[in-house]
Amino acid sequence: MFKQNLAKQTLRNIRLHHAQSDESISNTDICYENMMRFKKFADSLNYNGPVATMTDNTKLKESLSYSATLGCVIGSTLSVSETKVSNYEEVITIIDKIKVENTIAKQVQIYLLQIPLPKIPPIVIGLIPNNNKEKAADIFAYHQKVLQYAAQLKINIVSFGSDGAANEFNAQLMLMSTSTTENIIFEDQLYNIKFKCPVFPGIGPEIRI
Predict the structure, then answer these.
(1) Which domain of life is it from (predicted)?
(2) Rounded CA gap, 90 and 17, in Å?
């Protein structure tokens, strides 16, 4: 049935076909390659201005399937390397393993980069499956990876936005509390307002939204 659904194509041929598309990502983790995809997109627009990062942990319909783009079984919290397949028989083996280990993903942490201009679509830089048990420290680590690659590629990220879930909110607080050699501080004693944001080397100031 699996072969019939794929019109008798081999897994290798399907992967090669999808790999030719610039719209696809070959790694769902936050990685240099995905950040480079955004950089190339921005360069194609001659854009080097501010960029917004958005993240959200979205509920998934629990299911398992084969991804021709990634060459693996998707829908679990196992890493891509653990679910890679080279033939149809391995697909069934991996699916059985996921079911036995109860590692079917219930949520996916989505990371997007957005150029703040009209009609410019956001670019996906990370799709991280999880069981909705991620702690603030886990999300903070993802934020740090984004900033690490942004500094290398000279992407001017100015903000991190989320929907306000407790772990995401606390991750933002951790980001804003990062020790840096330079900070931007605004204080109004009359209205008891004090605003502070870190300035990251090679990137610039960061705020949370």
Answers:
(1) Eukaryota
(2) 21
